[in-house]
C-alpha cells in the first residue's frame, strides 16, 4: 500500500518505519526542517530500540521523508495524522496541529483516501476532522476519517507496534475499515511473524495481532480510558506504598500479593516517583476535560493526578529526611528521562525533582544514558553539571538519587558507589535495589514503600574518612 504519515515524532516515525517493515511504501512528512534534514541525512533523532535498524533497512527504498504534505497525500491511499496534541493551560487538548494538517490534506485530495487519526485525541475529533476537511473543499465522496489510536510505549515502541496487544480501528464505513485493516494485515494474519528477519518480539511461535473494529467515538474513548486506567494503577500502587511506609509494611511483598490475582495482574504495580511522559499526564487531563464538557464529574481522575503530584513531594521529603538540610548539598542524580529506554524528558518526574532541588540550593551533577542532550536544554546553562557516567555523577556527592529505572543503574558496583559518595546515602525513587543488599554494602538506603536502611555506623565511618581526606588535602 501507499501510506502517508504526517508527523515524524515518537509515534509517526515509529509507525512509518514499521509500516515500511510490513512491506508498504511510506512517505513520512514533517514540518520541522531540522528533524527532516536529520532523517534525510540518515540519522535517527530519537532513542528507541530497533528504530535505527528499521530506518537503515528501509530508508530510500520503502521509506521516504518529505516536507511536502500535498505531494505525500497525492501519493497515498491512507494518511495517518501523528502530530502532537499538547495540553493547554486548562488541561484541554490543543488540537490546532491536527486541524491545520486536516485543512492542508483537504486541499490535496484528488482520489479516494482514508485519513486516520493516530494522534491521541478527545472524542468527537473524528467528526471535527471531517468537518474541517469539508470546509476546506475536500469532496465528501473522496474521503473517510478513521480513528486508530496508538498504544506503543516509548522505550519499546517498535516491538509494541509490531506485536500489539490489539489494534483498534474506528470507522464509519466498511470501505474505510477495510483499507486501514489492510495496512495491518501482515500483523493480523501472522505473516510478518514468519519472516526470517523479523524484529524480535515478546511472543514465541504463531502469533496473530488482534484487530478490534469499533465506532470512531469508541476508538477515541478507548485510548483516553486506557491511559487513564494505567495512570490510575500507578497512582493506586503509589498510594499503597505510602500506606506501607506509615504502617511498616513492604510494598514489594504487598504488590506480589495483589498482582498474583489474575484479575489485577502484576504489570504497572511498580511504586516510584510517579508517572510522567508526554501521554499519561496530558491524556488524564484531557479525559477529565472531555468528561467535564459532557456534564460529568469524573473525580477519580482528579485524585489520580493529585497522588501523582504528591509522589514527587514525598520523594523530596525523603531526601530531606536523609540529608536534613538541602542548601549547598551536592547530589548525584541518576536518571533524567521519564522512564527507561527513552531519551524523552517531557513531563519527567526526574526533571521536576531536580528543578525543586535546585530551588532548595542543592548542587546537582546528573547522568542519564540517553536523555542528557534533551535535559541540557531544560536547565539554565551551568545550573546542573552533566557527568559522562553514573560513577562520575556520584563522585563526592552527599547522596545519590535514583530517578529513572535504567537497568544499567541496578548493575552498579555498590562498593565503588560507597567509596565515591561523601556520605553513604542512596535515595531510590524507583526501588532498583533490594534493601538487604544495600545494608550489606554499608549504604543508607531510602526507597518507596519499604523500610529505610539506616546505619549510623556507616555514616559516621564515611564522615570520618572524608574528614581525614580533607584534612590531608589541606
Ligand atoms: P512528537 O512531538 O514527538 O511528534 C509530533 C511531530 O509532528 C513533530 O515532529 C512535529 O514537527 C510534527 N508536526 C507538527 N505539526 C506538523 C505539520 N503541520 N505538518 C507536519 N508535521 C507536523 O509527538 P509524539 O510523541 O509522536 O505524539 C504524537 C501523538 O501521538 C500525540 O497525540 C500523542 O499523545 C500520541 N501518542 C504518543 C505516544 C508516545 O509514547 N509518545 C504514544 C501513543 C500516542
Characterise this structure.
By secondary structure, the chain is an alpha/beta fold. It is 45% helix and 13% strand. The chain has 20 helices and 14 strands. It has helices at 10-21, 33-40, 51-58, 69-75, 96-108, 125-135, 157-162, 174-183, 185-188, 216-247, 251-259, 280-293, 299-323, 349-359, 372-376, 390-394, 407-410, 414-420, 435-440, 456-473, and strands spanning 2-6, 25-29, 63-66, 78-81, 113-117, 143-147, 167-170, 211-214, 330-334, 363-367, 384-386, 399-402, 425-428, 444-446. A 6-stranded parallel beta sheet has the order 3-2-1-4-5-6, with helices on both faces. Strands 11-10-9-12-13-14 form a 6-stranded parallel beta sheet. The chain is elongated and about 80 Å long. It starts with a strand and ends with a helix. The relative contact order is 0.08. The model has no long low-confidence stretch (mean pLDDT 95). The site of nicotinamide-adenine-dinucleotide has 26 residues, from α1 and α5. Nicotinamide-adenine-dinucleotide binds next to α1 and α5.
- What is the CA-atom radius of gyration, in angstroms? 25 Å
Distance between the amino and carboxyl termini: 73 Å
Order of strands, main sheet, comes to 3-2-1-4-5-6
**Oligomerization:** single chain
Figure out the total of helices: 20
The percent range for strand residues is: 5-15%
Number of strands: 14
Structure classification: alpha/beta
The main pleated sheet reads as: 6 strands, parallel
Label the overall shape. elongated
Uncertain spans, ≥5 residues at pLDDT below 50? none
Mean pLDDT: 95
Bound molecules: nicotinamide-adenine-dinucleotide
Percent of residues in helices comes to 40-55%
Amino acid at each position: 500500500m501507499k501510506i502517508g504519515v504526517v508527523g515524524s515524532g515518537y509515534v509517526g516515525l515509529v509507525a512509518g518505519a514499521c509500516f515500511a517493515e510490513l512491506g508498504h511504501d511510506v512517505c513520512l512528512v514533517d514540518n520541522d526542517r531540522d528533524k527532516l534534514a536529520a532523517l534525510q541525512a540518515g540519522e535517527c533523532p530519537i532513542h528507541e530500540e530497533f528504530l535505527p535498524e528499521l530506518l537503515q533497512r528501509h530508508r530510500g527504498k520503502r521509506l521516504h521523508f518529505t516536507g511536502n504534505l500535498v505531494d505525500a497525500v497525492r501519493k497515498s491511499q491512507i494518511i495517518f495524522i501523528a502530530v502532537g496534541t499538547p495540553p493547554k493551560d486548562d488541561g484541554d487538548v490543543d488540537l490546532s496541529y491536527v486541524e491545520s494538517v486536516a485543512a492542508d490534506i483537504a486541499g490535496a485530495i484528488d482520489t479516494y483516501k482514508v485519513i486516520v487519526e493516530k494522534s491521541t485525541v478527545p472524542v468527537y475529533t473524528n467528526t471535527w476532522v471531517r468537518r474541517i476537511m469539508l470546509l476546506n473543499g475536500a469532496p465528501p465522496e473522496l474521503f473517510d476519517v478513521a480513528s486508530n489510536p496508538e498504544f506503543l510505549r516509548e522505550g519499546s515502541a517498535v516491538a509494541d507496534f509490531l506485536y500489539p496487544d490489539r489494534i483498534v480501528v474506528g470507522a464509519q464505513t466498511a470501505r474505510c475499515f477495510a483499507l486501514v485493516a489492510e495496512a495491518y494485515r501482515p500483523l493480523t494474519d501472522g505473516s510478518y511473524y514468519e519472516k526470517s528477519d523479523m524484529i524480535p518480539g515478546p511472543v514465541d511461535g504463531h502469533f496473530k495481532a488482534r484487530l478490534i473494529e469499533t465506532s470512531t467515538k469508541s476508538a477515541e474513548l478507548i485510548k483516553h480510558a486506557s491511559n487513564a486506567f494505567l495512570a490510575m494503577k500507578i497512582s493506586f500502587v503509589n498510594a499503597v506504598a505510602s500506606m506501607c511506609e506509615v504502617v511498616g509494611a513492604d510494598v514489594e511483598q504487598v504488590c506480589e500479593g495483589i498482582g498474583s490475582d489474575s484479575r489485577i495482574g502484576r504489570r504497572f504495580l511498580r511504586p516510584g516517583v510517579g508517572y510522567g511522559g508526554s501521554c499519561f499526564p496530558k491524556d488524564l487531563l484531557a479525559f477529565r476535560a472531555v468528561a467535564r464538557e459532557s456534564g460529568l464529574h469524573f473525580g477519580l481522575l482528579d485524585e489520580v493526578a493529585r497522588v501523582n503530584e504528591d509522589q514527587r513531594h514525598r520523594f523530596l521529603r525523603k531526601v530531606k529526611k536523609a540529608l536534613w538540610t538541602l542548601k549547598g548539598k551536592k547530589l548525584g542524580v541518576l536518571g533524567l528521562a521519564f522512564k527507561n529506554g527513552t531519551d524523552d524528558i517531557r513531563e519527567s518526574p526526574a526533571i521536576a525533582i531536580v528543578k525543586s532541588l535546585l530551588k532548595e540550593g542543592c548542587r546537582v551533577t546528573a547522568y542519564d544514558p540517553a536523555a542528557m542532550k534533551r535535559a541540557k536544554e531544560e536547565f539554565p546553562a551551568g545550573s546542573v553539571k552533566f557527568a559522562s557516567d553514573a560513577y562520575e555523577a556520584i563522585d563526592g556527592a552527599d547522596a545519590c538519587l535514583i530517578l529513572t529505572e535504567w537497568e544499567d543503574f541496578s548493575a552498579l558496583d555498590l562498593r565503588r558507589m560507597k567509596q565515591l559518595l561523601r556520605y553513604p546515602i542512596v535515595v531510590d525513587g524507583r526501588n532498583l535495589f533490594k534493601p538487604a543488599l544495600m545494608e550489606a554494602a554499608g549504604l543508607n538506603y531510602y526507597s518507596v514503600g519499604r523500610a529505610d536502611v539506616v546505619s549510623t555506623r556507616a555514616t559516621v565511618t564515611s564522615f570520618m574518612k572524608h574528614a581525614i581526606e580533607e584534612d590531608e588535602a589541606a
